[in-house]
Amino acid sequence: MEKADDETSLRTSIKAFEKIVEENSGDYDALKMLSTQTILLGTAYTEGRRQKSDLFRQAMVYAEKAMYTNSDFRALINEGKKPWEAIGPLTAREAEAMFFWVTALQYEFKEGMSLPGKIVNLEWLHRALVVLDHLEQVAPEFGNGGVEFAKVICYYALPKFKGGSKSKGDYYMNMAVQKGEKRLLSRWARGKYYYPILGEEEKAREDLEWVARQEIDKFEDLYPWRVHFQEDAQLLLK
Question: What is the reported pLDDT for 63?
Fold first, then answer.
């Protein structure tokens, strides 16, 4: 994963983790890595809504399989519960699986769905909030701003009657940046998504310029994501 800094190396890494899972279907670490790598493949290196959607949905499956390694969660799923209904037994051990499940869901909503699809599937963002709230409870220090930004997406995208709140979104955006000093994610996300929604184009550019000029080896995001954040910021600045 550390060396996966382009499409070819990312696909090679995915194949390696797929082989691990073929040999041991309950390998938590391999499953969580497959989830985040498949998300990255979908957003950074794939064109076409349907193709992206297939990858994001597969990433959700990998994340769910990682959660299944918690026997109490698996028992609830076997009883017919949905993942967001069965999260009670999940602990800090499964934090990454929960986070990648939400991330894949949000990319599916953003890049994989048509506008009518988004309208019909708004409830998915509410389900994401349920998972994020639980994740925040069991692993309050997890994510270095990632969990907080995921909440920003939900609060801004959801209408008020579904739990949306611009004020909560603003609060969590500030928290994401404060907690994300060691990662590129929060500044990249604020520049790409948050400030443009507010019409703050100059502030958006400042964030993207900041991301574009950083020495990425000094940050703690998973390395392929660091590469993506910086390359995407540079592209947006052109």
Answer: 99
What is the domain count for the chain? 1
Q: Is residue 76 in a domain?
A: yes
Question: What is the chain's percent helix, strand, coil content, to nearest 5?
Answer: 75, 0, 25
- The share of the chain scoring above pLDDT 90, in percent, equals 92
For the chain, the average pLDDT equals 96
- Report whether pLDDT(80) > 80: yes
Give the span between the Cα atoms of 46 and 74, in whole angstroms: 32
DSSP alpha helix (H) spans, the chain: 7-23, 28-45, 49-67, 71-78, 95-107, 115-120, 123-138, 146-157, 166-179, 185-189, 195-198, 201-213, 223-237
Exposed (0-12), middle (13-18) or buried (19+): which is 88, by Cβ within 10 Å? exposed
2 pLDDT exceeds 80? no
Domain region containing 98: 1-113
Judge whether 22 lies within some domain: yes
**Residue 94 contacts residue 70 (beta carbons within 8 Å):** yes
Q: Is residue 37 part of a domain?
A: yes
Q: Is 42 inside a domain boundary? A: yes
∠164-180-189 over CA atoms, to 5°? 55
What's the CA gap between 55 and 48, in Å, rounded?
A: 11
Is this prediction's pTM over 0.85? yes
Instruction: Give me the pLDDT at residue 118, please.
Output: 86
